Amino acid sequence: MQVNPVIEKELKTKMRGWKAPALISIYLGFLLTVIVLYFLFNNQMSYYGQGVFNPRVALNAYNTLAFFQLLLILFITPVLTGGSISSERERQTLDLLLCTDFSTFKIITGKIIVSIAHVMLLITASLPILGLVFLYGGIDLFDILLLFFFYIVVAIMVASFGTFYSTVFKKTIISIVATYLTIFIFSAVTAVALVVFYVLILNDHGTPSYSEFATFLFSNPFFGFGSIIENTTTRHSFFDIFTTLATGDSTEKIIIKSWMINSAFNIAVSSLLIFISARRIKPVK
Amino acid sequence: MLVIKDLVKNYGKFKAVDNLSLNIGKGHIYGFVGANGAGKTTTMRIVSGLLKATSGYVEVAGIDIRKNPILFKKKIGYMPDFFGVYDDLKVTEYMDFYSGIYGVAKSDRKAICDQLLELVNLTDKKDFYVDNLSRGMKQRLCLARSLIHNPDLLILDEPASGLDPRARIEMKEVLKGLRDMGKTILISSHILPELAELCTSIGIIEHGKMVVSGTVAEIMAKVSSKKTLRIKVLEDIAVLEKFLKEQPSINSMSVHNDYIDAEFTGENKDMVEILKGAITKGIPIISFNEVDRNLESVFINLITEGGGDKNAS
Ligand SMILES: Nc1ncnc2c1ncn2[C@@H]1O[C@H](COP(=O)(O)OP(=O)(O)O)[C@@H](O)[C@H]1O
Ligand SMILES: [Mg+2]
Predict the structure, then answer these.
(1) What digits encode the pLDDT tens for the residues A177-194?
(2) Would the N or C end of chain B have less CB density within 10 A of its end CB?
(3) What is d(CA A223, CA A243) in angstroms, rounded to the nearest whole number?
(4) Do A100 and B102 touch (CB under 8 A)?
(5) Which are the contacts of B12, defined by CB distance < 8 A and separation ≥ 6?
(6) What's the pTM value of the predicted model, to 2 decimals?
(7) What span, in angstroms and rounded, lies between the C-alpha atoms of B231 and B246?
(8) A235 touching B, CB under 8 A?
């Protein structure tokens, strides 16, 4: 087995130049700003007063970081993948790949794996910041590993869309916008649909059941996110919204958690998109 | 080596390639000539597996493109008319990348790439970024890339287009090298002189149709019924002119100081008759011979006669 040359080449060239270090710096800069603002805000508002250690603050700091990191992944991955194929077309290098016996499936997966590697690099680079919070205690290593797994599955889904759109649209920018639009539909539009259905049609003002949430929000990354941070979320904090999505009105222990449903959807959709994309760029079918 | 039969490619209602057939034997260099828009690129992209034909049969080294497209692509090395390079790769990295794409084992790559860079005369540019190469060098690099998997058939779409004269000569030298190595090549051009001395066979395409096709010798023979006779006399050129005008096998002529170039259509025995007649008339002929027409003038002749595109030059 030899390494996919697409991956090898892109890893080499993507890390060259100023763009990759710039992206890492901006990424870390953003997360640091979030966490610093968070601590500033909480030290002043803290119920316990200044200088007193509050485990809730640490936990919510972790959740805040986890949440903003998810947002960043949703924002950055489309940019990393929107040009996978269209940039090869623009540069007139695609034909040079397609006239060989190299499989289009490997071209597509190569592009996606490279962007996931890039995302993983960003996540890994942010570990020290997360570690800062980790030191306060209250967070399992398992929670962090699960969070990373979830990030990667979400990134794969977004990257698959980005790459798929890149095979459809000639212009990279259009692929990026289309990917954002898809993310918007998966997250915001599903949430609105749920509210419309539940409040306006059923005229129910209570908390919907878990299965109702799941029916509407299976594609919603924030629905999956809810069960990822359920161990680190305290009642009545901001993040309680997400954990409520992940439990509904159920009081029993949920076995098929929201992250499982959402990840299963993401993996299924990604596989399908990879398959379609590989077929789309195959010149003679 | 390459067999194309009744190839058709329609873009909507427009026929870009119209029932085109051609055959290239092993070791032949086939010059594919035609004006811009004649359908050369379309044909070559089909043969490279980049475009699906509307109908027709394509076979390389005995492999039917439709039956085994993957094996087929292994047999072909393609250099497009327009191509790009990854600007952030060095020459060696570029070659290494495409070696990987062609499935060359890591351990064999360096030797193959060194050898190919030598062949296209880029050894001293090894550590340059591809982006910093001149256009001619990029073109030669792309040619080296198309040779990585040692293909049976090379398809070169206007390999010398857009190059300055010097780069053109360099490219031609490389192509001659390939010819001497016994490679089978399909090479296109919209400029005839570019191909004339390189090819063993020629096909002329117009509006998607093959107008003339065959070995250089065959094509020469096809037009050899029409020859230019150069008759040189000691004196009395006017007498010769008058005499030639009476000959049915002479169509036209241009009179010079001491010789006449006469357009002749007929067989060798007609030529003998003309010479005999002139001598019996007492015309003092110094020499009587057929002017060697080079391939280029033959083409121009063929194309203009075929009522072809004015762009074909
Ligand atoms: N994708 C396409 N869609 C429609 N027409 C095309 C397309 N590609 C080429 N053509 C037309 O087909 C004809 C042949 O083009 P081409 O094969 O590029 O000619 P050549 O290489 O001989 O200059 C041209 O008239 C061109 O406009
Ligand atoms: Mg062309």
Answers:
(1) 999 999 999 999 999 999
(2) C
(3) 8
(4) yes
(5) none
(6) 0.84
(7) 15
(8) no
